[in-house]
Design a protein that fits this description.
single chain; 777 residues; alpha+beta; Immunoglobulin-like; three-stranded antiparallel beta sheet; 57% helix; golgi apparatus; AP-1 complex subunit gamma; Adaptor_Complx_Large_Subunit
């Protein structure tokens, strides 16, 4: 005997009572069989009940496509109960991908013309939900007529339907332009809010509409001022704020610009900030002031409002304030500076997103006048910040110190503090930058070597710190042993203690191969700076001749051969590095001269003088080649060029030529650029940094960049720095791609970009075939 069909309430109870997914599927399959049978029998009385059950099954994720035609039959029915379920089914089961949705166009047109308000409301809701471009063109005249109907219920729904139609068919703007001016005279707040939304949509889609509506700006300002200054109204008040939704809509109409300064001031002073609705109105006021290029006084007002938000107990409001201040800091730096203590206090937030935004804003507030105070705060935060923020904090401190350092000593102390606190989180170029800074400050050589020796004696786990300390001890070990340093308390160190500390670094399991290379080179250089016997250094060097690390083994073999065969040249080869001048005109001149010399050397023939052959013999350290063996062509005919190979620091080959950047995408102010780096230690690896910038007037949100490469390559996508690119050149989004290309195959890149811009969803898929040859050859 076949079980009878269930009522909707009974079906819901039975599905919820199922203990397993298999029981739930069994119940739904049986009921769907009853629904199909009822549809085949054509029962008109209970059709809407069967479709209601099917819609519930659809919302649970089960297939319900066989009910699409039943929706059309119910919509064509004259009974309101049938139409209600039929229109609901059309909104859930039909969309533009199904041709069946076009069949209800005539039914919607008839219902819109009937004059029955509930039926008109159903038809308008359905049209605004799933109306295609063809339906919008056919039904636009009917919707236009309803905009001027006496019933506020129908007019509200007609306005929202008009918004959907303009988004689908922008050329319909001329149809809905005239009624908007009349609708602004309405006193009904719901109609006013819908009208403002419609006007904003028209202005964004049509320049002619934007020009047309400029003349109604005073009327909008009057409406906004009336909302702010009128007394309490129970009909439109939410938490004591007079219709915040309409106020937000009025402020959001920034496309018309030119809002009255008096109106913004009145809103800012009369709005209750103890309620969330009032804070929403104030935030829209701030966005309006930011977007319409207001006077300096109004922009200061906006910054002060955001400063009050920072003191709010709600974390969401504080996050919004920090994000908005980050947008304003470039244009109104002095105004944002007044709230610097509050921003710094936000660094201690337990919420990770808040502390990250506070860190970004704090780094943006650093300048030459407050760099000492801000660095103290940021260094204190670095010691206690979460691990996922340490890399960003350390990099930000190093960049700010390099840009605003008042003295070289302060700069060195700051970098040392970062290396000591978060050495494993610093950028790769931190070691090179600090060694260059110390090398160029001759008056601070003794101070630096003493500071670094003390730091190394306390902790050898921070690898960048150990590398810098080893380099400095190797270069200026004689100053360390003299103990003459006026800046700090004199330190008495003997030779054995220095050698023992470097040996400790070599033997530590925490030391990276590159760190051991620095320590081994430091020991070798100390052999010319110490007064005692070098037997201990020679023994350590000889041990690493059989090291498994090829780079370290090569260094040890070269240094050991230097002891055995060329000991008379060791002092000259291992003398101190020359002073390095940092950025400046002299550095630019030297770079230009070296470039010209390189071009001349490429054009000149290879030298064949006997002196070059003798110098090449210095590099034949294996001592196993015969006199007739062919030597490789010399890289540099000068004696200095041959000796540089021995003086070179570990893992420091000549830097490759820079790879030019590439612009691959640009649309409506959104631009995507690619920059390339090939690490010298791993030529098969290519690091691509994508940078997304936005010069338009609207923010880019939900930005996602995905990539694909040929199967012969390996691609790894790192997490992006964010998903929002603020308007007008705000903070860009960066993302790192790691591409492994061991076979040096020609590189092709396929990118897919998705983001929201000007209230529209954008998706672009394109292929980049013009990547620089240097990026893969």
């Amino acid at each position: 005997m076949v079980a009878p069909s269930l009522k909707l309430q009974d079906l819901i109870e039975e599905i919820r009572g199922a203990k397993t997914q298999a029981q739930e599927r069994e119940v739904i399959q049986k009921e769907c069989a009853h629904i199909r049978a009822s549809f085949r029998d054509g029962d008109p009385v209970h059709r809407h009940r069967q479709l209601a059950k099917l819609l519930y099954v659809h919302m649970l994720g089960y297939p319900a496509h066989f009910g699409q035609m039943e929706c059309l039959k119910l919509i064509a029915s004259s009974r309101f109960t049938d139409k209600r379920v039929g229109y609901l089914g059309a909104m859930l089961l039909l969309d533009e991908r199904h041709d069946a949705h076009l069949l209800i166009t005539n039914s919607i047109k008839n219902d819109l013309s009937q004059g029955i308000q509930p039926v008109q409301g159903l038809a308008l809701c359905t049209l605004s939900t799933m109306g295609s471009a063809e339906m919008c063109r056919d039904l636009a005249p009917e919707v236009e007529k309803l905009l001027l109907q006496p019933s506020p219920y129908v007019r509200k729904k007609a306005i929202l339907t008009a918004v959907h139609m303009i988004r689908k068919v922008p050329e319909l703007s001329s149809v809905f332009l005239p009624p908007c001016v009349h609708l602004l005279h309405e006193r009904h707040h719901g109609i006013l809010l819908g009208t403002i939304t419609l006007i904003m949509e028209l202005c964004e889609r049509s320049p002619a509409a934007l020009r047309h509506f400029r003349k109604v700006v005073p009327q909008l300002v009057h409406i906004l001022r009336t909302l702010v200054t009128t007394g309490y109204s129970t009909e439109h008040s939410i938490s004591g704020v007079s219709d915040p939704f309409l106020q937000v809509g009025g402020h959001s109409s920034k496309t018309m610009t030119n809002i009255s300064p008096l109106s913004s001031t009145q809103v800012a002073t009369n709005t209750d900030t103890s309620r969330n609705a009032g804070n929403a109105v104030l935030f829209e006021t701030v966005l309006t002031i930011m977007d319409i290029h207001s006077a300096a006084g109004l922009r200061v007002l906006a910054v002060n409002i955001l400063g009050r938000f920072l003191l709010n107990s709600d974390r969401n409001i504080r996050y919004v304030a920090l994000t908005s201040l980050l947008r304003l800091v470039q244009s109104d730096h002095s105004a944002v500076q007044r709230h610097r203590p509050t921003v710094v206090d936000c660094l201690q937030e337990t919420d990770a997103s808040l502390s990250r935004r506070a860190l970004e804003l704090s780094l943006a507030l650093v300048n030459s006048s407050n760099v000492r105070a801000m660095m103290q705060e940021l260094q204190a935060f670095l010691e206690s910040c979460p691990p996922d923020l340490r890399a960003d904090c350390a990099s930000g401190i190093l960049l700010a110190a390099e840009r605003f350092a008042p003295t070289k000593r302060w700069h060195i102390d700051t970098i040392l503090h970062v290396l000591t606190t978060a050495g494993t989180h610093v950028r790769d170029d931190a070691v090179a930058n600090l060694t260059q800074l110390i090398g160029g400050a001759q008056e601070l050589h003794a101070y630096s070597v003493h500071r670094l020796y003390n730091a190394l004696a306390e902790d050898i786990s921070q690898q960048p710190l150990v590398q810098v300390a080893a380099w400095c001890i190797g270069e200026y070990g004689d100053l360390l042993l003299e103990g003459n340093c006026e800046e700090i308390e004199p330190l008495q160190v003997d030779e054995e203690e220095v050698l023992a500390l470097l040996e400790k670094v070599l033997q530590s399991h925490m030391s990276l191969p590159a760190t051991r290379g620095y320590a081994l080179t430091a020991l070798m250089k100390l052999s010319t700076r110490l007064q005692g016997d070098n037997n201990r250094i020679r023994q350590v060097v000889s041990i690493y001749r059989s090291c498994l690390d090829v780079e370290l083994q090569q260094r040890a073999v070269e240094y050991d051969t230097l002891f055995r065969k060329y000991d008379h040249m060791r002092a000259a080869i291992l003398e101190k590095m020359p002073l390095v001048e940092r950025d400046g005109p002299q550095a630019d001149e030297e770079a230009k001269e070296s470039k010209e010399a390189a071009q001349l050397s490429e054009a000149a023939p290879a030298p064949t003088e006997p002196q070059a052959s003798q110098l090449l013999d210095l590099l034949d350290l294996l001592d196993g080649a015969s006199g007739d063996a062919q030597h490789p062509p010399p890289l540099d005919p000068s004696p200095g060029g041959a000796l540089v190979y021995l003086l070179d620091l570990p893992c420091a080959p000549l830097p490759p030529a820079p790879i030019p950047d590439l612009k691959v995408f640009e649309r409506e102010g959104v631009q995507l650029n690619l920059s390339f780096i090939r690490p010298p230690e791993n030529p098969a690896l290519l690091l691509i940094t994508i940078t997304a910038t936005n010069s338009s007037e609207g923010d880019v949100t939900n930005f996602i960049c995905q990539a694909a490469v040929p199967k012969s390559l390996q691609l790894q996508l790192q997490a992006p720095s964010g998903n929002t690119v603020p308007a007008r050149g705000g903070l860009p989004i960066t993302q790192l791609f790691r591409i492994l290309n061991p076979n040096k195959a020609p590189l092709r890149l396929k990118l897919r970009l998705t983001y929201n811009h000007f209230h529209q969803s954008v998706q672009e898929i394109f292929e980049v075939n013009n990547l620089p040859v240097e990026s893969w050859q």
